[in-house]
Specification:
Blueprint lengths: L1 E5 L6 E5 L9 E5 L2 E4 L1 H7 L16 E8 L11 E4 L2 E2 L5 H4 L10 E2 L11 E5 L3 E3 L6 H5 L1 H15 L7 E5 L6 H10 L3 E5 L6 H6 L4 E3 L4 H8 L4 E6 L3 H9 L1 E9 L12 H7 L2 E4 L5 H12 L7 E5 L4 H9 L6 E5 L3
Parallel strand pairs: 11-12, 11-14, 12-13, 14-15, 15-16, 17-18
Antiparallel strand pairs: 1-2, 3-5, 3-9, 4-18, 5-6, 6-10, 7-8
Helix pairs in contact: 4-5, 4-10
Length: 338
Amino acid sequence: MRVAVMEGVNGRIHSATAQDPEPEGDEIVIRQNLTGICYRDVLTHEGFFPRAKFPLVPGHEVSGTVAKIGPSVRKFKVGDRVASLIYIPCGKCSYCRSGKENLCPNKQTLGETIQGSYAEMVKVPERCVVRVPQAVPEELATISACVTGMVYHALSVTGQLMPGESVLVTGAGGGVGAHAVQIAKALGATVFAYTSSRWKEEKLHQMGVDYVLTSEEFDREIKGLTSGGVDLALDTVGLPTFSRSLRSLKFGGRLVAIGNVQPVPVELPLGLIILKGNRIEGSISSTRSDMKKALELSAKGEIKPVISQKVDLDHVEEAYSMIKEKGNLGRILIKLDS
Ligand SMILES: [Zn+2]
Ligand SMILES: [Zn+2]
């Protein structure tokens, strides 16, 4: 099969031929048409994931049809339409047994500690896989674990978002943000979207965003538009927006952090958090339950795919440059069946 290989930290990324995976035990081989490019892949390339084993097939966004199954697979058959978690949970720890497999301390991550998704076929155990309803567009199946399921987890499970509340989404024009604003709307929120790229403003309005903010001082704008701030800030960026996201919260508001584009510590004004009773929480990835919820919203048409472009396995480096320069509106996907 064809794959893309990352040679090392800041090394070449090129297409190559690899052996087709063969399933054993409870493993499923998924044949893919598409996979997503995630900021995490860019950070892996830059050396921010020290557990990464090179040369590596990067990527972790897996979907497609079941091509082969191991002898002990019970719930899926060849031809089923499926998507996978971005990691392999151990299936045995207390987190895994209570449906919080995203917190499994023993998990292996695709495209980091094990071979990833920039490949025509990917092998994962049955416990990673969910069924994809027919009405879900292929692009939304691809990003159901890392984008839409992850955002659903951040807003609904971690952030406890309730209908009628207000939500700020930073990095709203990026691959995560462009879907986060739609999910926040689908969950009944009033949505404030911050993007540093003015040219993305119109498109964000078309996605149903109530207020698009492009000023770097978006916290001040929010104060002017609300009584005291938003209920929930979903910070998809990290250092460049974290401090203002925090200042956008109302009393008792909460910030959910899911992005870390510049992996260095941020300043934490304790006085502000204490006096306003704010909460800051990290949210990691998605569970199969989150993926199912995101796929339901996708099947109902409440989330539309926002895809910047599709590249082939020979143009991954160019796609990484575009993501770093914020030239994309929405997710960049890799087309694998070309
Ligand atoms: Zn991802
Ligand atoms: Zn576990």
